[in-house]
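Tutorial handout. Part one gives the primary structure; part two gives the three-dimensional structure as tokens.
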Amino acid sequence: MKLVFATHNKNKLKEVQALFPKDITLLSLDDIGCFEEIPETADTIDGNAILKANFVKEHYQMDCFADDTGLEVKALNGEPGVFSARYAGEQKDNEANINKVLKNLQDKENRSARFKTVIALNLNDHQLLFTGICEGIILKERKGEHGFGYDPVFQPNNFDKSFAEMELIEKSKLSHRGKALQNLIEYLAK
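Part two.
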């Protein structure tokens, strides 16, 4: 089976491919010749995943799935949320995004946060959503060299290290994306 994963992000593609069964070949947006940035104009994480999956289905007529992820920080009223990638501006700079979260949390006691991933699957003219959530806290400073995005400042509950200090396999088992993907993979295996 061939399935398009609606992403240009090589890190994300690598993370996802590691979890998929060998009989499912994942194609990126680059692999199908889609080099444009798909608009993410919805005001929810679910909505953005649906927009991306529908774009691929409409323009390329291929079965696909798309995800959207947001970091929701309790003391910041759920920010950055749907704006996680662009929290510090349209340039989507990970370091600037982390700096803004840390600055906004400086005088806050509560550092609880969660990552939420929603995957929209368009398969055989049906659409299904799969959600994964990982609860944790925002650290006061960066820790670790692995991962991407907010990984250096996010520490999942019941762990003493950040996502960026974990190897890919360990992170994938407990991460928001890993949980949503596990639900997707179980569905595809049926």
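Part three, for discussion. The chain has five helices and seven strands. The mean pLDDT is 93.
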